[in-house]
Design a protein that fits this description.
Its cofactor is FAD. The chain crosses the membrane at residues 20-40. Keywords: FAD, Flavoprotein, Glycerol metabolism, Membrane, Oxidoreductase, Transmembrane, Transmembrane helix. It is an enzyme of class 1 (oxidoreductase). By secondary structure, the protein is α+β, with helices and mostly antiparallel strands. The chain folds into 4 domains: 1-99 and 174-253 and 416-477, FAD/NAD(P)-binding domain (3-Layer(bba) Sandwich), CATH 3.50.50; 100-173 and 255-348, D-Amino Acid Oxidase, Chain A, domain 2 (2-Layer Sandwich), CATH 3.30.9.10; 369-404; 518-610, Alpha-glycerophosphate oxidase, cap domain (Helicase, Ruva Protein, domain 3, Orthogonal Bundle). Helices cover 41% and strands 17% of the residues. The chain has 20 helices and 20 strands. The protein has helices at 5-17, 29-40, 77-93, 118-132, 146-152, 174-187, 238-242, 316-329, 369-383, 389-404, 437-456, 480-493, 498-508, 512-517, 530-542, 548-555, 558-561, 563-581, 585-603, 605-610, and strands at 20-25, 45-48, 64-65, 99-100, 103-108, 142-144, 161-167, 170-171, 191-193, 196-203, 209-216, 222-232, 257-265, 275-278, 286-292, 295-299, 303-304, 342-348, 417-421, 427-431. Strands 1, 2, 9, 10, 11, 12, 19 and 20 form an 8-stranded mixed sheet that branches. Strands 13, 14, 15, 16, 17 and 18 form a 6-stranded antiparallel sheet that branches. A hairpin with a 2-residue loop joins strand 15 (286-292) and strand 16. The radius of gyration is 24 Å and the shape is globular. The protein starts with a helix and ends with a helix.
Length: 612
């Protein structure tokens, strides 16, 4: 079923004219997961997303389906068991996306309590293998001597190196996981629209929510969408959505934190596999270094965030922190800001009072200088009538939640999730992490089906969500390599090089055949290769690509991991899209400027210029 600008207007018409059973606000991984299960259950489902699908948090993660081995140091066996079990489910649902990529965990002498020692890491990895069901397989853990570690990673710090453990982890393409869920929901009959912002709630006479007013950001039209139930899955924005036209102030559910990742050429930082280590700064944090295509990226930071949720920025402080950590662990790399080719910053929708990421450290309850300054600032603004009482209550509530936590920074506890229904009927599903998206959606659907039955007498089937594969993943998850090879051969028969055919097969899974079928049916775009042309055409026709940035940043990896060819690619992509959409000269210029701004932000151009 086509999913493009051509179908968008019809979708919006249906959203306006048909009463839905369920309206989802937010098109990240949480909303996409709910949409798949709801649509597959026969529930008349709509979803609106104010940006591009996954544009907020869900395209800005560490791009792993992480097993959380670090929790085993504190004997949090249940957390790890849940995580690795659900990770296996996600890999089954989308076998073309999460891919096994064993993680190297170097062990150093005398570096504090946050790092495993050689004895404890082996015990932890053996338990981890049992929980993950990989004991006795090719993915079973093993140990490396210092010499073997250095042979693999010649730039790594040698002083104090005792060796390393290697255990199974999975790389992920976060934005692709979202769009494949969205495409599957579309196939199953859901009405989904990006660039559509919820601006107000609709109420009945009993002050119960019966829908939303939404603004089409492509046309500025305001539409009304009526639905029996409305669920808020807007990630870091859940509290902002909860505040729409609500009486009185709300107690925030979330305490967002910001994570930053930086990308360099693999020649500057050669690592053959993901590597995970303590920062060495005694701050309780861990950092990843991960190879991807011909690049290496590293992160993450974990800092409280109260700025603009739409555009979290990488700051000088973020860069200095990560470069200090990387150059400490890889002293022979000597990486500077000028070596950074791309970057991204994202917000984590952490539940207040349970504000931990999957892999970092803890909060002692002390007030940070930043939080203290924020309190002073908002109180001063209130006295000068520049801030409302609600603004003050929000800051103080976050401060109270922070003080209630027991560990030492914004990332101590396993990230939980929350499912709540408020007095006016709004359902909010918040928190969680990518690995848990299917399980979170399953819990939400249990509540949704019960409410539709109790309040409307509507009964819907319960699907087996653990086995309901998504778009691109319709093949045997036990035969990933064989399937990719099969599709690769099909692509080669259609005239592609083995490298290009293999890349498309690995990237698009069971949808690869649809791309190969375009060869001979569509003409290559001017100044684009055949491979790039079929990828762009497929994105426009089947993946709701609406802007050049949608395509180059979230439907493909060009902006993050293909910076060397991006400058020669961007003009032909904009030209092709302009012809496809029949843009005016002004529209084409505007979209090209938007793309260049996104590239400049990823490049850290402003920060680099500020240091010259």
């Amino acid at each position: 079923m086509s999913f493009s600008i051509k179908t968008r207007q019809e979708t919006i018409k249906k959203l306006q004219t048909e009463e839905l059973d369920l309206l989802i606000i937010g098109g990240g991984i949480t909303g996409a997961g709910v949409a798949v299960q709801a649509a597959a259950s026969g529930i008349k489902t709509g979803l609106i997303e104010m940006q591009d699908f996954s544009e907020g948090t869900s395209s800005r993660s560490t791009k792993l389906v992480h097993g959380g081995i670090r929790y085993l140091k504190n004997f949090d066996v249940e957390v790890v068991a849940d995580t690795v079990t659900e990770r296996a489910v996600v890999q089954h649902l989308a076998p073309h996306i999460p891919k096994p990529d064993p993680m190297l965990l170097p062990i150093y002498e005398g570096e504090g309590a946050t790092t495993f020692n050689m004895f404890s890491v082996k015990i932890a990895m053996d338990l981890y293998d049992q929980l993950a069901g990989v004991k006795g397989t090719s993915y079973e853990n093993y140990m490396l001597t210092p010499e073997e570690v250095i042979e693999r990673e010649p730039y790594i710090k040698k002083e104090g190196l005792l060796g390393a453990g290697v255990y199974l982890d999975f790389r992920n393409n976060d934005a692709r996981l979202v769009i494949e869920n969205i495409k599957q929901a579309n196939e199953d009959g859901a009405y989904l629209a990006s660039k559509m912002e919820a601006v107000d709630f609709l109420y009945d006479n009993q002050r119960q929510i019966i829908g939303v007013k939404a603004k089409d950001l492509l046309t500025d039209d305001i539409i009304e969408i009526r639905s029996k139930l409305v669920i808020n899955t807007s990630g870091p924005w859940v509290d902002k959505v909860r505040s729409l036209n609500r009486q009185g102030s709300i107690v925030p559910y979330l305490r967002p934190t910001k994570g930053v990742h930086l990308v360099v050429d693999s020649k500057k930082l050669p690592v053959p596999q993901p590597t995970y280590f303590d920062t060495g700064k005694q701050d309780g944090r861990m950092v990843f270094v991960i190879p991807r295509e011909s690049k290496t990226y590293f992160g993450t930071t974990d800092t409280d965030y109260q700025g603009d949720y739409r555009t979290p920025k990488v700051t000088d402080e973020d860069v200095d922190y990560l470069l200090e950590v990387i150059n400490f662990r890889f002293p022979e790399a000597t990486i500077g800001i000028e070596d950074i080719e791309a970057s991204w910053a994202g917000l984590r929708p952490l539940i207040s009072g349970n504000s931990g990421s999957d892999y970092n450290g803890g909060n002692s309850g002390k007030i940070s200088d930043e939080s203290f300054a924020r309190v002073i600032e908002v109180v001063a603004d209130y006295q000068m009538k520049k801030a409302s009482r609600e603004d003050v209550e929000t800051v103080l509530s976050r401060l109270k939640n922070s003080l209630a936590e027991k560990d030492s920074n914004p990332s101590a506890v396993s990230r939980g999730s929350s499912l709540e229904q408020e007095e006016d009927g709004l359902i909010t599903l918040s928190g969680g992490k990518i690995t848990d998206y299917r399980k979170m959606a399953e819990g939400a659907l249990t509540l949704i089906r019960q409410l539709l039955l109790d309040n409307y007498g509507l009964s819907f089937r319960e699907i087996d969500s653990k086995n309901y594969q998504i778009s691109g993943g319709h093949f045997d998850s036990e035969k990933v390599e064989e399937t990719i090879e099969e599709y690769t051969n099909k692509g080669m028969l259609r005239g592609l090089s083995r490298g290009d055919a293999r890349y498309i097969s690995d990237f698009y899974g069971s949808n690869a055949g649809e791309l190969f079928d375009l060869i001979g049916k569509v003409n290559p775009f001017d100044n684009l290769t055949l491979t790039e042309s079929i990828r762009l055409y497929y994105g426009l026709e089947e993946e709701m690509v609406l802007t050049p940035t949608d395509y180059l940043l979230r439907r493909t990896n060009h902006m993050l991991f293909g910076r060397d060819t991006l400058d020669e690619l961007k003009q032909p992509v904009v030209d092709a899209m302009s012809n496809y959409f029949n843009w005016t000269k002004e529209q084409k210029t505007s979209y090209f400027e938007e793309l260049n701004e996104a590239i400049a932000e990823s490049d850290l151009r402003e920060l680099k210029e500020g240091r010259n």
